[in-house]
Amino acid sequence: MHNQLVDVEIYNRWGTKIYTWNTIQGGWDGRNMISGFQCESGTYYYIVKETDILGKVYEKTGSITLIR
User: SS3 for the chain, per residue?
Assistant: First the structure.
């Protein structure tokens, strides 16, 4: 039996990965996972890779704006 998988990565404008999760229930709370501090307002970039139950991989990229 296959499970649906998801990998999400959040990057700052310098290309540094600041947050990641790999569950459907995951999410970003606006913090940097390395330092634990809240990120500044600004534009961040994401990569989402999802594998469906048949093993097909989908990828989506884009930007999000964090407003404090």
Answer: CCCCEEEEEEECCCCCEEEEECCCCCCCCCECCCCCCECCCEEEEEEEEEECCCCCEEEEEEEEEECC
Structure tokens at 46: 């994401």
User: How is domain 5-66 classified at the CATH fold level?
Assistant: Immunoglobulin-like (2.60.40)
Output the six-digit token pair for 25. 């229930």
For 64, residues 6+ apart whose C-beta sits below 8 A from its C-beta are 10, 43, 44, 45, 46
pTM of the model: 0.86
Query: Does residue 2 carry a pLDDT above 80?
Result: no
Domain positions in the chain are 5-66
